[in-house]
Specification:
globular, single chain, 482 residues
Length: 482
């Protein structure tokens, strides 16, 4: 049973309040010494001009200001509509320092608008030119570029374009090697790519440089947890919680404390692709070797089948039954689960048997499906593929019941959208028979690159999910009722 592993690194970076230097309505302040400063907003205060940017405020004596290039105001009836990317420039009217500081009517405030990727790139090019033309303003313009590159990286990571996200965050760190948001974004990208070693190294350095940054500590805890270092994970999360308490982080701490309270004394062994934890006091002397040998054997086949190779060792925790349910709080009919780690209640065995092999293969398949789809595969697809992998097939009784359900519906539009293990297996069997297993792998890959489940099936099979479900219902009726 999967509890789809959340891409916690991705959620962390998307939750950031990244400095929004990419606002497309910006004024340009030109100083008498040749420097230029891009302003989000301007404010006059006595003999000073306050230049507000996302990173802070720069105070400049008005006597040092040569001119201000105003960004065009938003068109009437379109609040927040952008002017030319980057603001000002040759098309922006030059004004004297005595002009109104924000170029808008008293009390007017244009709501922020997220600029397009093209606008951001043009703004970066413009700021780069300003750095070359006016070296004295390098610091201010460099901060703007870092913010814009962080925004591009965040958007790429959100769209699961991990390669571009990596490029943008590395570019940002080229301008400012110590920028906390860039370090967090780079680390989140490493995690999304399954490169926990690189993520951990980046985060441990970043936390030393920014000890009060709760987001960095939270993500570091996530990485420690995925590497089965619970004490380090709890320490990082608790420090993050002290800095920025949230209910979600408290739940994460509570969960790991509950789990670690049970498995703290378990033995741990390492295999080529797995980290195994088990209760050595109750298990048979050869159970760990039998489990890792079986998992390694299945690993190779699943790599070929799903065209996916996990970059990090998969953590497998084997509990005695009572401790499994205490640790996971799972319902009594759950035979195992995958929540980023494989957890199974088979710890009292003396040696691996056929039923335990099925459970292990079922949960290992969840790990591959989650990895291939970046954790976005829906439950029915996860369970259908996992059951099919372990060798289950739809029984005549289950097929007949599903066929009758389909025939009983006067409106077929909602058919197949509810979940049951029987329907999940039957539908996946139908899809494999009709479309071929490689097409399901292609669907998982499309979802891993950002497509919705509906778009992925439409793109790969040329049929909508609704059409495929209806065809499945018709096939069931033809097979079992006619």
């Amino acid at each position: 049973m999967p509890r789809s592993p959340i891409r916690r690194a991705l959620m962390a970076i998307l939750a950031l309040s990244l400095p929004f230097a990419g606002s497309c309505r910006a004024d340009v302040v030109r100083l008498k010494n040749g420097a230029t400063i891009v302003a989000d907003t301007l404010e006059e205060r006595g003999d000073d001009l306050l230049i507000h940017q996302a990173q802070g405020t720069i105070v400049v004596p008005r006597s040092e200001v040569a001119s201000i290039e105003r960004a065009p105001a938003a068109a009437p009836g379109r609040p927040g509509a952008p002017g030319p990317p980057g603001g000002g420039g040759p098309s922006g009217p030059a004004t004297s320092p005595d002009a109104a500081p924000d170029g808008s009517a008293p009390g007017a405030a244009a709501p922020p608008r997220i600029p397009s990727r093209e606008e951001i790139l043009k703004r970066i090019d413009e700021l780069d030119r300003r750095i070359r033309d006016y070296p004295m303003a390098r610091a201010e313009n460099g901060k703007q570029i870092v913010s814009l590159l962080n925004l591009l990286g965040m958007q790429a990571l959100q769209g699961r374009n991990d390669d571009e996200a990596l490029q943008r965050f590395l570019q940002a760190l080229g301008y400012d090697p110590h920028n906390a948001r860039s370090q967090l974004g780079l680390s989140a990208t490493y995690v999304a790519q399954g490169q926990d070693v690189q993520a951990r190294a980046t985060l441990e350095l970043a936390v030393l440089e920014h000890p009060e940054d709760a987001d960095l500590r939270t993500l570091l805890g996530d990485v420690y947890d995925s590497q089965e270092r619970p004490e380090d994970a709890l320490a990082a999360w608790k420090k993050a919680y002290a800095l920025k308490p949230t209910p979600a982080l408290q739940r994460r701490i509570d969960k790991l404390e509950r789990e670690h309270g049970i498995d703290a004394g378990y033995r741990q062994s390492e295999a080529a692709h797995f980290t195994l934890k088990y209760d050595g006091e109750r298990a048979g002397p050869d159970l760990d070797a039998g489990i890792t040998a079986y998992l390694e054997e299945q690993f190779t086949g699943l790599v070929t089948r799903f065209e996916f190779y996990p970059r990090q060792p998969i953590v497998v925790i084997v509990y005695p039954k009572r401790q499994f349910y205490e640790a996971t709080l799972a319902e009594s009919n759950v035979a195992g689960l995958f929540d980023g780690k494989i957890r199974v209640p088979i710890g009292g065995l003396q040696q691996l048997n056929g039923e335990a092999r099925k459970v292990l293969l079922h949960e290992l398949t969840h790990a591959f499906v989650a990895g291939k789809s970046h954790g976005t595969a829906p439950r029915w697809l996860q369970e259908g593929l996992a059951q099919q992998a372990e060798g289950k097939a739809t029984s005549t009784v289950a097929g007949l019941a599903l066929a009758r359900q389909y025939e009983a519906l006067s409106e077929k539009e909602g058919w197949g959208q509810g979940f049951s293990y029987e329907s999940a297996l039957s539908f996946v069997e139908f899809l494999i028979e009709r479309e071929g297993f490689p097409h399901l792998v292609d669907v998982l890959e499309a979802m891993g690159k950002g497509a919705t489940i509906e778009d992925a099936f439409q793109r790969v099979t040329r049929y909508s999910l609704r059409e495929l479900r209806d065809a499945w219902g018709q096939a069931l009726a033809a097979k079992y009722l006619k």
